[in-house]
Design a protein that fits this description.
The complex is a heterodimer. By secondary structure, chain A is mainly beta. Helices cover 1% and strands 43% of the residues of chain A. The longest helix of chain A has 4 residues, at 358-361. Chain B is mainly β. In chain B, strands 1-2-3-4 form a 4-stranded antiparallel β-sheet. In chain B, strands 5-6 form a two-stranded antiparallel ribbon. The chains are: A mainly beta, B mainly beta. Chain A binds chain B through residues 199-200, 203, 222-225, 227-229, 257, 262, 265-276, 341-344, and chain B through 10, 12-15, 18, 33, 45-51, 54-60, 76, 78-79.
Chain lengths: 605, 80
């Protein structure tokens, strides 16, 4: 990982802005232009957004800059997966400043992920970069509107004012699905009220923005008042292209609605309601309700949809459910793509390893009793997600709390459990593995499209994990930074931003070719020096964030007088070695006297 | 075509009760909000089009008649 740029002054502009057009070859770091392909600085290139002010009109917030809250200097605008994470306060329950960026979860459709910064084009050849920014859904101290910025320019963006800038007061929105046939950007909207501290939490509804490419963008949403105390996720387009949303209650685990949003009429049709308590229906699920000990506003995010293995051509997904015994038994939903009808299966079997059960591994959060009047949006969540590795499908249960520190005392709160899904019967889950996050997980981000590389935000570190069939999730590195955002650009590079030494933002580049772990294993654990020189070896390897061994230049330095590196017959205190992706690299070492020595490693960029 | 004004009693602390205009045309139920402006007077803004009723187990049934449609709306106000 490399620290790419440190900012030491107030720029009301995003840390990174990617030109996401297919032809775009610019990245702007605090406004300064670089070539996207090589990251070389571009002379006399800058993004300005407006010619009427010096820099960054669209990002000027309506409140004073606060270094403890990075706001815009902590903003990444990238075309790939992107998650922001607030650290305004720590280890404090029931405070809306802990609210979680859930943009990534608002779409269950792998083909239509939520993107706040995207390229859109219609069949007539009109196209634009369209950006909606808001900071972490934290409407405090003042409601922060969604800012829309549009570029319809040809050529580079340097010094070109944006063609449209608007703000949507009192609404947050998440851009999910570009419907080509109607040229509308279908969104999820949250109405959080018309003034500071007005209690309009968890009010969500589908909606749209029209005229994105030309004219004046217009926002419409389906209902004058939103659906309350629910979470919406985009399931996917119906056969005719209209958008289907899952409406999942926060107040219980058994009310789910499927809703069709027609952007041409701005109306909703309910496709299915599941609103009956789950009886004992089979499997190991005993049904019932989980009770109020787990709080009354628990957001549950469903998995991405995938091909239903029991019904060719149709889709399926998992939705978290915890039965009256506190045991996780996710619903298995099936979506008939021909009729747009839905089936909810609750006869789920969960098999645990011999001598263990769920409470051995995982506990649902019982410390948070957040109410709708104190959280505004998502402060904590359950999330189950599925992925495939080597033809085998897995389901992972994740519990996060935006407060940070809340789960530190109980490792089972911060344990992510993975189940293997039976290849024939997707309602049968078998415990596969678990990983305990070292501190309270605040949010997660998938670092590859296969979802086998995971990043976890915490207050003090950003942890990275890779999944293997043998070991499950293994930590490949922790980056000791309080990241405000992590995301991927359209080339797949990973970027992060934290406060940096001046608290005005610092950009990090996390690249797959940059070693994140260096390992040096001595041939013996200790050596008994009796006055005769001992020739020995060490095994040197470098690994990337996936845990894959890579070739990299590593400088080893001996600290102490008892040991030397041996290179071409010379005894050295410091030398650089190039590791191999294929084999171990052997380092010749000589013990020359009694006493302790340390060998430190650093990566040469 | 039959019409009914449904008094919506929202359980939320944040909404005031409001009226919903229900129209049944023989097969489809349409719900509209009633707005008033100086130029046009009372205006109906459709926001729900429901060609069938949804049952709690995820299945659907056609509406029998207007009374059936309006009763379904009344008993499922959380959808409106």
């Amino acid at each position: 990982m490399a620290i790419f740029k440190t900012n030491n002054t107030t720029y009301n502009i995003s840390a990174v802005y990617e030109d996401v057009r297919p032809s775009g070859n610019r990245m702007y770091f605090y406004g300064q232009a670089h070539k996207k392909s090589t990251l070389q600085a571009v002379m006399n290139g800058m993004i300005v957004h407006s010619t009427t002010t010096a820099i960054g009109t669209y990002n000027v917030p309506t409140y004073a800059y606060d270094p403890s809250n990075l706001r815009w200097t902590g903003l990444l605008l990238l075309g790939g997966e992107l998650v922001h994470c607030s650290h305004i306060i720590n280890n404090t329950n029931n405070d809306r400043r802990n609210n979680i960026d859930f943009s990534m979860f608002t779409s269950m459709d792998p083909n239509n992920p939520c993107r706040q910064h995207r390229y859109v084009a219609d069949a007539a050849g009109n196209n634009a970069i369209f950006t909606q920014t808001h900071y972490n859904q934290v409407p405090n101290p003042n409601p922060s509107p969604v800012y829309q910025v549009r570029y319809n320019v040809v050529g580079e963006l340097d010094f070109v004012p944006c063609t449209k800038f608007t703000s949507i007061a009192y609404y947050h929105s998440w851009a999910i699905y570009w419907r080509q046939s109607t040229s509308t950007l279908i969104q999820l909207f949250n109405n959080y009220g018309s003034s500071t501290d007005t209690n309009w939490p968890n009010h969500l509804c589908p909606g749209e923005i029209t005229n994105i490419l030309t004219g004046t963008s217009t926002v419409t949403y389906a209902a004058p008042t939103s659906y309350q105390n629910v979470m919406f996720q985009f399931v996917g387009p119906a056969a005719d292209g209209r958008a289907i949303f899952l409406n999942n209650s926060l107040s219980n685990d058994f009310t789910q609605l499927l809703m069709l949003y027609d952007d041409t009429t701005n109306t909703i049709t309910t496709l299915a309601t599941f609103n009956s308590n789950v009886a004992t229906t089979g499997g190991t699920n005993i049904g019932g309700t989980r009770g109020t000990a787990y709080g009354n506003t628990l957001t549950k995010f469903s998995s991405k949809t995938f091909e239903d293995p029991t019904s060719a051509g149709n889709r399926a997904w998992y939705t978290p459910f915890v039965d009256s015994a506190g045991n996780f038994h996710p619903y298995y939903f099936q979506w008939n793509r021909t009729t747009d009808t839905f089936t909810r299966n609750s006869d789920i079997t969960v098999n645990w390893a011999s001598g263990t059960n769920q409470s051995t591994n995982w506990l649902p959060d019982t410390v948070s009793a957040a109410s709708v009047s104190t959280t505004y949006m998502v402060q904590r969540f359950w999330y189950n997600e599925t992925f495939v590795l080597a033809g085998d499908r897995y389901l992972m249960l994740i519990q996060c709390h935006g407060g940070g520190g809340i789960y530190d005392a109980e490792p089972r709160y911060r344990t992510f459990v993975t189940f293997a899904i039976d290849s024939v019967n997707p309602k049968q889950l078998t415990y596969h593995s678990r990983v305990i996050i070292p501190e309270t997980p605040k949010n997660i981000i998938w670092l590859n499209d296969a979802r086998t590389l995971l990043g976890v935000f915490a207050y003090n570190n950003f942890y990275m994990y890779a999944f293997t069939a043998v070991n499950g999730w293994s930590q490949t590195v922790n980056l000791p930074f309080r990241f405000e955002a992590v995301g991927r650009d359209l080339t797949g590079r990973m970027w992060a931003v934290d406060g940096g030494p001046y608290n005005y933002g610092r950009i990090h580049l996390i690249t797959p070719t940059t070693p994140t772990t260096v390992s040096l294993s001595m041939a013996q654990a200790s050596y008994n020096y009796t006055g005769t020189v001992i020739n020995t070896t060490g095994t040197l390897n470098a690994y990337d964030q996936s845990g894959i061994r890579i070739a990299a230049p590593i400088t080893l330095k001996v600290e102490g007088s008892s040991m030397r590196l041996v290179v071409n017959g010379l005894e050295l205190l410091e030398s650089t070695f190039t590791t191999s992706a294929a084999t171990d690299t052997t380092v010749n070492i000589r013990v020359v006297s009694a006493g302790q020595s340390n060998i430190t490693a650093s990566v040469n960029f | 075509m039959q019409i009914k004004i449904m008094e919506k009693i929202d359980s939320s602390d944040f909404d005031e009760p409001r009226q919903v205009h229900l129209k049944f045309d023989g097969s489809t139920l349409t719900a509209s909000h009633i707005t008033v402006n100086e130029q046009d007077g009372q205006v109906l803004v459709p926001y729900i089009i429901q060609p069938y009723k949804c049952l709690p187990d995820g299945t659907r049934e056609n509406f029998i008649d207007a009374d059936d449609a309006f009763a379904w709306a009344e008993s499922n106000q959380y959808l409106f």
